[in-house]
Structure formats: C-alpha cells, structure tokens
C-alpha cells in the first residue's frame, strides 16, 4: 500500500479524463489503470452499405493525466554515502548538487548492498527477493527468491508508465536480464523491452569496458566506438539520452517521458578520460584515513549527518595510511585519483542530460531523482588494487606494487581494467562500517539521494531524514504521475507493490514527519539486517568481502548486534548486551519478513553458487558446432574451456595468400584465447590475464584452398589454474607443440564475447594484430569439443566464489 499525493497539476488516481470528440481522430483519454493495456472502449461507429451510410470511429489515444511530469530517474554505480561532494565527499558532483539545491537531499535512503538486486527493487517497487533477485543473476539458483527472473505478476515502473501513455527509455547498465538470456535468440521478456521500455541503449551485465563496451540498442549488439579513438561510454550514453529527448519532443511535444539513466560509473573498470584524471592529480596524497576525517567534518558542516554522529572505527585488518611505503602511497593515491575522476566525469555527463531537460523547456515539469550509487563503494580491488580486475577475479590478488607502478601513467586508460585498494572503498563509505556486498551495515546500503520537482517541493535545498528504501522510488513516481497500481498487466494479476511513496516528504510541514516506512529487512549472502521504527538489528560479517575464496562459519553462528538509530546514526554503539529482549524481538521480526519475501533458504556460500546449472543454451553440452561468421555471443552461451582439455577443429578455405584474420576467439586484451591466421600462418594465442602471452604457430603459410586446422590442449589437472600441453596441427600434421605453464583459473572476461570469423572488441595479442581482424577466407565448419572439468569439489567452490566476485 502506498500513500497517495493528490497534487493540483496531476490527475487523481483512477480518474478518467477525455479530450476531443469520442471516436474522432483527435480523441485522447486517461485510463483507470486497473488493467494494462487498457481495454478498448466500445466502437460507436456505424457500418452501412456505402460510406455515405457509415460513420468512422477511432479508439482514443491513451495519455497521462493533465500535468503529469516527465520523470528522469538517475542511478550511478558502486558509490557509497561519502563519495559525492553533495553528501560531504571530496569529489565534486555539481549535477547532484543542482538537483539537491533545487529540491531535497535524503540522508537515510537505502539499497540492498549489491547491484542487480538493488535495480530489481528500484524497477518493481518490491523487495529484491520478492522478485527473484536475492543475489546477482550470474549466481542465481532455482529458488523463488534467487532465480533472477522478475515474474509477470511483478510489473515494472516501465510497464506502468508506458501503459498510462508515457514514452519510456532506458540508458546504461542492465543487470536485470538473466545472464542465461543474453542470447540474440532471447527470450526477450526479461530484457528492457519486456519490462516496459520502448527504447534501450546500454550494456548487459554488471560492468563493461568503457572504451569497447558490450553494448546493445534494443536487442541488437552495436559497436559505436569503432574508428573513434576518443570514445568513452559515459559520453555516448549522455549523447544518446539527449538525442532521444530531442526526438521525443519533436515527434510529440505533449507526451511526458520517463528516462531511466544508469551509467556504469563508478563500477570497475575505472576508465575516465585523461583530462579528468589530471584534474585530481595530488588530491589524494593525504591518504584514506585523513580523507575519512575530512569527509566526516564536511558531512557535519552540511548537516547530512546529525551533530552527535560518531565516526566508526577503522578496521584492524586494513592498513593505516601512515604504515604504507612510499611506493604504496604513490600507487594507491593514483588509484583514487582515477576513481575520483570517473565519479566526477560521470556526474558531469549526467549534468549534460539534466541541462538538456532545461534546454527543452521541460525542467519545471520534470521530476528528477538522482541516486548516488546502487550500493556502497566496491572493495573488490582487494588490498593492493589491480590494473586488471580479472586477475583479481581469478585469484591473483598480489600483483606487486612495483609492477603496478609501471602502469602509473596509463592507469585508467584502455591499457588497464583497473580497481582501487579496499582502504579507499571503506573511506568513501564514511561515516559507516563496511562496503558493497555487506547488507548488514550501512556502508553497504546507505546511498545519497536528491529529488527535485519545481512547484511541488516547497522546501528548496532541504534535508530529509526519513528512513526509506529503493522499493519506495516506484510508488513515489506513480504518485507524481497520478497513476495507480494495475490489478492486471497483460491479463496477469499483479502482486501488491511493497514500497511506500516518499511524496509526503515534499511538503515543508512534513520535513520532520515520522518515516512512512516502518519496517525494512536487508539480506545478502546471509549478512542480515532488520529496521523497525528507529531500531536496527544486524549480523556481523564473518570477514571483509575483499577476502576472496574465504570460508564461512555456519549461518546460525553469526553474531548479532543491536542499534538505536535515532541516537546512533552511524551504527556505532552496539546495545545487544544491554537489551537482549529487544534483540530477540528484532530477530523474530527478521524471520517474519524473510518468510514473507522469499529470503529463505539463506545461503552463505558467497560466490560458490556460480557453477550451479542454469537454463542456458550450453547446459550439459560438451560439443559446439558453427559455420560462417558468428560474432558477439555472450560468455554464458559459449563453450567454456577453463579447467579442462579441449580440441578446436576448423575446416577453412583460404585465398591465394593463405588467408588472414580471426577464426574463433573468446576474450581480449585482459585475458582469453584466439585461433587465427596471420599472413597465411595458423596461430593459437593464449592471453594469461595480461601477465603472459602463450603462442603456437606454424612454420609455413597455408597454400590456397581447403585446410583442416586443429588446436588440441591436454590439461594437467586435476587442479585450478594448471598448465597443459597444446598442439597445433595443419591437415593432420603437428606443426607446433609445447607446454603452457598455467591457465586462467575461474572466469573468462565476460564483456568480451565469443566470436567466430571476427574479433569484435580487443585483441588477444596486439603484437600480432590490431582490429579489425575479420577472416579473409571462409569457415566451412568449426567444432569445439570439451573434456570433463578437472576441478575437485573443493576447487569448484573456489571457482564459484570468484565468479560471484566478478559479477556483482
């Protein structure tokens, strides 16, 4: 149930309004919204023997109610409460400032602690487990709360606004299509088009390279960076959103738009333009401990935390800045400079989108919601940071500082896929404890948010402290648009929206009103929390999420804490020992909410779920066959060669020069493999996460005509990341054979696709070739045979954990 705000400029919920002459071409109507699409009214036309004896009739166009606003919903990525300058951070965010200064800042607004669960809650107005997103889709399991499938009975804000006459568009990150449904064969009911969006321009999955993104326009994969050396995804997304708004106004100036704008910043890889990095040179030499103190002081000065707030203690298992060596300080400061540049650059591009709303004359009629981050700042760079996030995901956590410093000048460029040391993540979540992934503490769940709506918020520049959650955004938008929850969408009865409208906070007289949200649970990977009217109880994480492949204690052994947030904003003073009765009451409330929202069964395997079978096109397959050119297949729908023996056989026809180009590849600059012909010479290349290149090549070029090329690899298992022996054959004759000392352990680079006949993103070995590298012959048949996995059950668990780290 959500509160209804009846504003003078919006149609009352459910009130039908018509304009024009019924049956005429100019007729429009609002709808009750009980059924979407709305039932067509009876045809009052007349059919006679001739046109003279007949009367035309047109169904009225469905339009939003008079005064219904445009909606611009913005959410950035992996940014905790202390990142933005708007909420006390040291990184300027003028676009967020603009929204806050024209409206309201919210200081107790919460996420789920992980990206796709937060986004599912945002889009549906329902708790993340209630819509199948208890964890990210890459770790989904076959339980109702964890299958990563938004049921047809959980209609999205896109479907509701579209059904009521809005033009709906989605730009940026989509981490709510199940990874096993990324195929061009669909099904598309879980893509943005199936969630009510007329237009989608963005990337699939949790992250993507900003220079060569895994990008889609609606259902079609696109490559707009080709031939553009200065391309960056964040600018492209802003350009596309601006162009879309212009086109919509030109086509139908009176139709309100809903734009969901979700850029990739500041999720890894941190890849802003060089000129933005230079702006932050030297700005983080003070280190993470001093920065934390500065943020805390700024937050008190701005009034975004209460004056009695305490700064939570620095954790014992993270180093103090002053304990670091000079080289460590230099490297880590550079990592933060690049992160800050990415955050500021992302905000600047968002500012261009907001400015376009004003340039179109629509700012006074636009509800803008700007959420800084979908969870706390990410700890996945681990203790040292990394120039290649996929090295960390594959268990390589200690690339020496000296080696990382060799990339100092290109950190953040297309030559790196970087993340920062976890000390910065903890500090950017000031004043709270913990980081992204941790749902029990506000370092993982507290987001800065600002809302503006000229003429409807009468406390301009005000601060709101009511406790709210991502599920409250959808009913807030619906309130402003004057629409009700439908009883049915496409004939499917709908489950109740679980969010509560925040629109009551728009009025100055309600600045200190009690929170309309009375209860809210939190859960992620068995870290739990429960809020109830100022009280908060939570479990304590067994270890920090930056510790990869760690083991967990039994779930029933987790320690619980108790806080009274009205006196303890930062969750600092544990009252569990003083008030065991209240703690027990809160634990019982968590159990009640967990049963209601599909939270059970609790699962603390962390990332060990990733190896469970899902309904993809590859499940149970050990042999794959292709012909011709087949680019852009997702990682989840392609052959996975890791941890096993395999044989790749290509039947090709080459021209007189022996041919040139890629036969088949998976991966690119930051890890993977490729089978190609280089100036007539067959080559198999293996990129060991940018740390080493292994290569097999024939001695002579091919003659014109048909050939059979084979790469056969025998894995030295069982075990993780073992080496093996590779043999390259041409027409049945071995032309090169040698050992490979190691291999990628857990996961391939997921935003690099599986390509046959082309290489769509980055090179496996840029010393051999540069893109484009299309095959100049023909691929008559391509066969990949996989041997059985050679990981032990214990090793498979580690693989699962690494998969989960990579996909959140």
UniProtKB/TrEMBL annotation:
Keywords: Calcium, Hydrolase, Metal-binding
Calcium found in the keyword field: yes
EC number(s) per entry: 3.1.6.1
Limits of the Sulfatase N-terminal domain: 69-483
Broad class of enzyme this protein falls into: hydrolase
SUPFAM superfamilies the UniProt entry points to: Alkaline phosphatase-like
GO molecular function terms listed in the Swiss-Prot or TrEMBL record: arylsulfatase activity; metal ion binding
Region entry Disordered, spans: 14-48
Bias (Low complexity): 18-30
Pfam families on file: Sulfatase (PF00884)
Database matches in PROSITE patterns: SULFATASE_1
InterPro entries in the cross-refs: Alkaline_phosphatase_core_sf, Sulfatase, Sulfatase_CS, Sulfatase_N
Protein name (Swiss-Prot/TrEMBL): Arylsulfatase
Organism, as annotated: Aureliella helgolandensis
């Amino acid at each position: 149930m959500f509160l209804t705000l009846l504003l003078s400029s919006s149609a009352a919920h459910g009130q039908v309004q018509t304009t024009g002459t019924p049956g005429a071409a100019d007729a429009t109507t609002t709808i009750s919204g009980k059924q979407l699409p709305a039932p067509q009214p009876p045809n009052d036309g007349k059919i006679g023997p001739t046109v003279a004896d007949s009367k035309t009739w047109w169904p009225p166009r469905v339009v939003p109610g008079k005064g219904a606003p445009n909606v611009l919903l913005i959410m950035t990525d992996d940014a905790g409460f202390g990142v933005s300058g708007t909420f006390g951070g040291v990184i300027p965010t003028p676009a967020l400032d603009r929204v806050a200064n024209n409206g309201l800042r919210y200081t107790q607004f919460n996420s789920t602690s992980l990206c796709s669960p937060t986004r599912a809650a945002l889009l549906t107005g329902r708790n993340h487990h209630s819509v199948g997103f208890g964890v990210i889709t890459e770790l989904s399991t076959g339980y109702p709360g964890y299958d990563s499938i938004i049921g047809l009975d959980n209609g999205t804000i896109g479907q509701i606004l579209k059904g009521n006459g809005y033009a709906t568009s989605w730009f940026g990150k989509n981490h709510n299509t199940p990874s096993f449904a990324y195929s061009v064969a669909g099904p598309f009911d879980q893509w943005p088009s199936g969630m009510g969006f007329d237009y989608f321009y963005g990337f699939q999955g949790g992250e993507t390279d900003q220079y060569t993104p895994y990008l889609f326009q609606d259902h079609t994969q696109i490559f707009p960076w080709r031939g553009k050396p200065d391309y960056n995804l964040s600018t492209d997304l802003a350009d596309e959103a601006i162009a879309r708004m212009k086109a919509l106004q030109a086509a139908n100036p009176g139709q309100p738009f809903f734009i969901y704008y979700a850029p990739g910043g500041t999720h890894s890889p941190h890849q802003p333009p060089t000129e933005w990095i230079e702006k932050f040179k030297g700005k983080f030499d003070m280190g993470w401990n001093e920065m934390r103190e500065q943020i805390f002081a700024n937050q008190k000065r701005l009034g975004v935390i209460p004056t009695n707030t305490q700064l939570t203690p620095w954790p014992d298992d993270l180093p103090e800045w002053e304990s670091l060596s000079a080289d460590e300080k230099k490297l880590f400061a550079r990592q933060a400079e690049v992160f800050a540049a990415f955050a500021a650059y992302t905000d600047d591009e968002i500012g261009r989108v907001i400015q376009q709303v004003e340039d179109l004359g629509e700012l006074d009629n636009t509800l803008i919601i700007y959420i800084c981050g979908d969870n706390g700042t990410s700890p996945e760079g681990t203790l040292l940071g990394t120039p290649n996030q996929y090295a960390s995901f594959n268990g390589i956590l200690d690339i020496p500082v000296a080696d990382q410093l060799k990339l100092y000048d290109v950190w953040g460029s297309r030559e790196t896929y970087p993340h920062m040391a976890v000390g910065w993540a903890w500090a950017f979540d000031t004043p709270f404890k913990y980081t992204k992934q941790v749902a029990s503490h506000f370092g993982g769940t507290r987001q800065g948010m600002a809302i503006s709506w000229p003429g409807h918020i009468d406390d301009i520049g005000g601060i709101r402290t009511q406790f709210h959650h991502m599920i409250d955004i959808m009913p807030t938008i619906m309130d402003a648009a004057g629409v009700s929850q439908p009883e049915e969408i496409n004939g499917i009865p709908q489950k109740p929206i679980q969010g509560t409208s925040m629109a009551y906070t728009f009025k100055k007289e309600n600045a200190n009103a009690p929170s309309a949200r009375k209860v809210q649970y939190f859960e992620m990977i068995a870290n739990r929390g429960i809020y109830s009217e100022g009280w908060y109880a939570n479990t304590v994480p067994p270890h920090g999420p930056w510790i990869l492949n760690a083991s967990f204690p039994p779930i029933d052994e987790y320690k619980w804490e108790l806080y009274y947030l009205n006196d303890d904003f930062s969750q600092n003073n544990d009252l569990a020992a003083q008030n065991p009765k209240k703690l027990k009451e809160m634990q019982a409330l968590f159990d009640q909410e967990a049963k209601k929202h599909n939270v059970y069964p609790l699962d603390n395997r962390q990332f060990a779920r990733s190896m469970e079978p899902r309904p993809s096109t590859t499940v149970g397959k050990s042999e794959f066959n292709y012909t011709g050119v087949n680019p852009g297949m997702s990682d989840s729908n392609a052959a996975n060669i890791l941890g096993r023996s395999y044989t790749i056989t290509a039947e090709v026809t080459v021209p007189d020069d022996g041919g040139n180009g890629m036969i088949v590849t998976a991966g690119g600059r930051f890890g993977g493999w490729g089978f190609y012909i280089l100036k007539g010479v067959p080559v198999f290349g293996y990129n060991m996460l940018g740390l080493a290149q292994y290569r097999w090549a024939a001695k002579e070029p091919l003659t014109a005509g048909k050939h059979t090329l084979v790469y056969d690899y025998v894995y030295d298992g069982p075990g993780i990341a073992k080496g093996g022996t590779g043999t390259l054959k041409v027409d049945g004759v071995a032309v090169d054979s040698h050992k490979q000392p190691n291999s990628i352990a857990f996961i391939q680079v997921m935003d690099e696709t599986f390509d046959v006949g082309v290489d769509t993103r980055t090179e496996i070995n840029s010393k051999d070739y540069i893109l484009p590298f299309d095959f100049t012959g023909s691929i008559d048949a391509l066969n990949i045979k996989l041997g059985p996995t050679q990981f032990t059950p214990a090793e498979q668990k580690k693989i699962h954990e690494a998969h989960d780290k990579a996909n959140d």
